[in-house]
TrEMBL record:
Record region (Disordered): 158-178
This protein's UniProt keywords: Endonuclease, Hydrolase, Metal-binding, Nuclease
Keyword Nucleotide-binding applies: no
Family membership noted in the UniProt record: Belongs to the RNase H family.
Domain RNase H type-1, first and last residues per copy: 1-158
Catalytic reaction(s) noted: Endonucleolytic cleavage to 5'-phosphomonoester
Naturally occurring in which organism (per UniProt): Heterodermia speciosa
An MF annotation (GO) of this entry: RNA-DNA hybrid ribonuclease activity
Annotated protein name in UniProt: ribonuclease H
Record EC number: 3.1.26.4
Length: 178
């Protein structure tokens, strides 16, 4: 039996590059019979949040959630996990560059250590663990097709910034399955 998960992820950073930058990541699990459920995660203050770190954190968060699900099932299905991002950077890290970087000792083509290596290595390690349960694929989608995850990130950044926001429940299905 195949257990499928479709996830959309996004990350965001306000005041990118400044000492008071804030960042958040969101994942949205799209349910098989309609609806979705979302989660958010704040980025730590150190290393300083950036947009790229937020996007990679969203990938990590999705992989953790998929592993959590795989390990909680009473049966041992083949997992088919599809993770969609609007970040060409995060997509490239997971589909092409990380394998080259790992083989090159995490040195990029300019001869420097890969930026965000800590997060990329964590994501690759989680991907490797999840592959024991099945197959993980990554897809790039245009930003306008990632609006639910994008909104969750913006709402969380507003909360961190102290702005009032109207919270979305995210539960648009009577089922708690994802």
């Amino acid at each position: 039996m195949v257990y499928m998960m479709k996830m959309e992820v996004d990350g965001g950073c306000r005041r990118n590059g400044s000492p008071n930058a804030i960042g958040a990541a969101a994942i949205v699990v799209v349910r098989k019979y309609g609806g979705w459920r979302s989660w958010t995660r704040d980025l730590p203050d150190y290393p300083a949040p950036t947009s790229q770190r937020a996007e990679l954190t969203a990938i990590i968060f999705a992989l953790e959630k998929a592993l959590e699900k795989a390990e909680s099932l009473d049966y041992n299905p083949f997992m088919r996990v599809r993770i969609f991002t609007d970040s060409k950077y995060a997509h490239g890290c997971m589909t092409d560059w990380s394998f080259k970087w790992r083989n090159n000792g995490w040195i990029n083509s300019a001869g420097n250590e890969v930026a965000n290596r800590d997060l990329i290595e964590e994501a690759v390690d989680l991907d490797d663990r999840l592959e024991q349960y099945g197959k993980v694929t990554y897809g790039w989608i245009p930003r306008d097709q990632n609006s639910t995850a994008d909104q969750a990130v913006r709402d969380r950044l507003d909360e961190i910034d102290g702005h009032d926001t109207e919270m979305q429940d995210g539960y648009q299905s009577s089922s708690d399955e994802y």
